[in-house]
Write a structure and sequence with these properties.
Elements (H helix, E strand, L loop, with lengths): L1 H23 L4 E7 L6 H20 L8 E7 L4 H13 L4 E3 L4 H14 L3 E2 L16 E2 L5 H14 L5 E6 L2 H15 L8 E4 L7 H10 L3 E5 L2 H13 L5 E4 L5 H8 L7 E4 L10 H13 L7 H18 L7 H8 L5 E3 L2 E3 L13 E5 L5 E2 L1
Parallel strand pairs: 1-2, 1-3, 3-4, 4-5, 6-7, 6-8, 8-9, 9-10
Antiparallel strand pairs: 10-13, 11-12, 13-14
Length: 375
């Protein structure tokens, strides 16, 4: 038994030595990304990955960062927290440099304790949930506004239009609860509360009960906090049931994916945005993004999700470029904290040692019957 114990300890020591050696001998900067590539939220992961890869590809073509190429290693989690946790454990075992561009609140929350324990930077998750912002975690950096910011603007506009009968349709998980809480906070500031609330399970389109409950309550507006397939299903079924009110969505819905799902039924649906418009002729960041996207995939069309991946990639690269000598995780965290008043070709971010939420930018857009997005 004693010999067996010594053997196990020796193996553990070899494993630690191997990890240290890999860290010292990095020939590339490997970023681990867990996102849905399949299932009813797949377009969110695919587009987030696409925008990031478009930028990383351009950086690598120019020699990488400090001579090191950036490798984005993406694993499919199907928008399932358990799968995301397993992917994150795999990244930790493989000694990736940082975690980057995760998609979703429940998935990111499943990964966060693992990232924290392993002291891995967790950069630019596609989520606006407060649970990833408070309490402050020095390893986590956000490039997008919060769901509180988005729902505040939505409720502000609705009440200014004297629309006060506001219902909430939300995903029955941490994401949906985060959005619901944002709507409730914004309404409470104005002496109001939701007219009605109904839910849908994550990764399903079983909306019949929610449609029945909310249509019966006769709200003027339904604020939706879910992914694009369930939101599209709700809109279609509510309209079939005779509902004539308005639909508002937060950015995570996936703007283009929602428009594609709805077709001509998208007309008049409002979506809040936390990124600059990726469309049309533009200078600065948007022009850079459009050119990089076209070079990477000539058939790809600009959209709000892929530009978020692009912005996130620019931010982490600018942080890496501020490092002196061999890149380190602690060095990356410290470097990102120096991006105070940082302007990435027209998209402004402000990080500091006590603030890792870089932006509070939000604006509202409206979908049209031909699949376009109008600001």
């Amino acid at each position: 038994m004693q010999n067996r114990r010594h053997f196990q300890l020796a193996l553990a020591g070899l494993a630690l030595t191997g990890t240290a050696a890999r860290a010292q001998e990095r020939r590339s900067i490997v970023l681990g990304q867990s996102v849905p590539l399949t299932g009813p939220a797949a377009q969110l992961g695919l587009q987030m990955q696409l925008g990031a890869k478009a930028y990383f590809d351009a950086v690598n073509a120019a020699g990488g960062v400090g001579g090191l190429p950036i490798v984005l290693r993406t694993l499919d989690d199907g928008y399932d927290p358990a799968h995301c946790k397993a992917n994150t454990e795999k990244f930790i075992q493989e000694d990736v440099f940082a975690l980057f561009g995760y998609v979703g609140t429940p998935t990111s929350l499943a990964a966060l304790p693992l990232a924290t324990a392993a002291k891995l930077p967790f950069i630019a998750p596609l989520t606006g949930a407060e649970a990833l912002r408070d309490p402050f975690n020095r390893l986590v950096f956000h490039v997008r506004a919060s769901y509180y910011d988005e729902t505040e603007l939505i409720v502000k506009q609705l009440t200014q239009l004297d629309l006060k009968k506001i219902a909430v349709f939300h995903q029955n998980d941490a994401y949906g609860q985060a959005g619901l809480k944002g709507v409730q906070r914004a309404l409470e500031k104005r002496g109001l509360q939701p007219t009605a609330v109904a839910t849908v399970e994550r990764n399903t389109v079983d909306v019949a009960a929610a449609v029945k409950a909310l249509v019966h309550a006769q709200p003027e507006v339904v604020v939706q906090i879910s992914a694009y397939k369930s939101c599209a299903a709700f809109i279609r079924e509510a309209r079939k049931a005779g509902y004539g009110g308005q639909f508002y969505n937060v950015s995570f819905v996936g703007t283009q994916a929602l428009a594609d799902e709805l077709g001509k039924d998208a007309a008049g649906v409002v979506v809040s945005q936390v990124m600059p418009s990726p469309f049309g002729t533009a200078a600065g960041l948007v022009n850079d993004y459009q050119q990089a996207l076209h070079r990477f995939d000539a058939k790809a069309e600009p959209n709000y999700t892929s530009i978020e991946g692009y912005v996130a990639a620019r931010v982490i690269v600018d942080g890496l470029r501020r490092l002196a000598g061999k890149p380190s995780r602690e060095g990356l965290v410290s470097a990102l904290e120096t991006l105070s008043g940082y302007d990435s070709r027209g998209y402004r971010l402000a990080f500091s040692p006590t603030r890792h939420v870089g932006s509070s930018f939000v604006e509202l857009t409206m979908l049209t019957a031909d699949g376009k997005v109008r600001r």
